[in-house]
Amino acid sequence: MEFPDIQEIISLYLMPWSIRLLQAAAIYIIGRWVASIMIRLLRKAMNRADMDEILISFLTSILSALLLLIVVVAALSRLGINTTSLVALLGAAGLAIGLALQDSLKNFAAGVMMIIFRPFDKGDFVEAAGVAGTVLQITIFNTWMRTPDNRKIIVANGDIISSPITNYSANDTRRIDLVIGIGYDDNIGEAKQIIQRVVEAHDKVLSDPEPFYGVLELGDSSVNIAARPWCETAEYFGTFCDLREQVKLALDEANISIPYPQMDVHIAQPGVPEDGEPVKKAP
After folding, report:
1. Residue 8, phi then psi, degrees to nearest 5
2. I want to staple 186 with a disulfide (CB 3.0 to 4.6 A). Which of 17, 150, 182, 217 is the partner?
3. Contacts of 195 (CB under 8 A, 6+ apart)
4. Was domain 119-167 assigned CATH 2.30.30.60?
C-alpha cells in the first residue's frame, strides 16, 4: 500500500485548504471593516437628518448584527460549507431559541414599539414599571435609566410597555400644586393674599397660564388653600421647594398658623356622665 508523499499531501490538501482559510479570513476581516464603515456612514447620515439618538443607536445595533451575520455566512461559504443547510439549521435553531426565550423576544418587540411610537426620548424624566428616572438609552431588550440620586437602573422593555408611562418632560411647562393649611381662626382672605404675593414674586413662576388660588378643602384640623402656579418643566422641583419655604415664612411673619392634625379625646368614667355631674344611686 502506497502512501502519498509530502508534496502530494501539500498540493492536494494543505494548499487548497490554506488558501480557502486565508480567503475566508480575508472575507471576514474585510467584511467587518466594510460593515463598520457602513454603520459609521449611516450614523452620520442620521445625525445630519436630526434623528433622535435613541433611534440611531437602536437601528445601528440591529443593522450591525445583520451585517455581521452576512459576513460570517460568506466566510463559511468560501470554506466550502453548505450555507443553505446552515441557514436552515439556523432557522430551526432560531425557532427553538425563540420558544425558549419568549420573554426576550417580548422585550425586543416592546423596544421596536417604543422606537416607533416614541412615548419618551433620551433625556426625558419618566416614571414606568415602578421606576422613575432620566432615560439614558433604549437597547434591543432594555431601557437604561438614571435615578435622581444617580443610580443606573436597567428595565426590561416589556415591563415598560405593559405599564402606564408618565413622561414628566413631555411638555415645556408644568403646574405646581401647593396645598397650604391654615387654622379655622385665621383670616382666609389675608392668607390668600400672602400666598398670592409670595407666589407671583418668584422669578420662575409664569404669568401665563395665570395661577389659581382658592379654598380647596375644609379639613379636620385646617382650612386648606390651593395655589396652582405654572413654571418651566426644568425648573419644577426647585421652584416647588422654594415656594413652600417662602410661603411658610411669610405666614409665620403674619402670625397665621399652619396647624398640625389634632384630636379631642373625651374619656367617660363609670358613673359620671359627660356633663361631669355624678350619678346618684337610689337608696
Report:
1. -65, -40
2. 182
3. 178, 180, 213, 225, 227, 247, 250, 251
4. yes
**SS3 label, residue 217:** strand
Whose cell is 422641583? That residue is: 237
Asked if 158 and 103 touch (Cβ cutoff 8 Å), the reply is yes
The predicted-structure confidence for 139-178, as pLDDT tens digits, reads as follows 878 899 999 999 999 999 999 999 999 999 999 999 999 9
Q: Supply the pTM of this predicted model.
A: 0.61
Give residues with Cβ within 8 angstroms of 155, minimum separation 6: 128, 129, 131, 142, 143, 145
Q: Which residues pair with 182 in a beta bridge?
A: 223
Cell of 128: 414606568
Confidence category of residue 62, pLDDT binned at 50, 70, 90:
confident
Helix (H) or strand (E) holding 248: helix 236-253
Considering the domain delimited by 173-253, tell me its CATH architecture.
Answer: 2-Layer Sandwich (3.30)
pLDDT at 155: 95
- The domain over range 11-100 is classified in CATH as 3.40.830.10: no
**Given this model, what pLDDT does residue 52 score?**
66
C-alpha cell at 53: 439618538
In this structure, are residues 34 and 41 in contact, taking their beta carbons and an 8 Å threshold? no
Q: Cell numbers for 212, please give them.
A: 389659581
DSSP 180-211: EEE-TTS-HHHHHHHHHHHHHHSTTEESSSPP
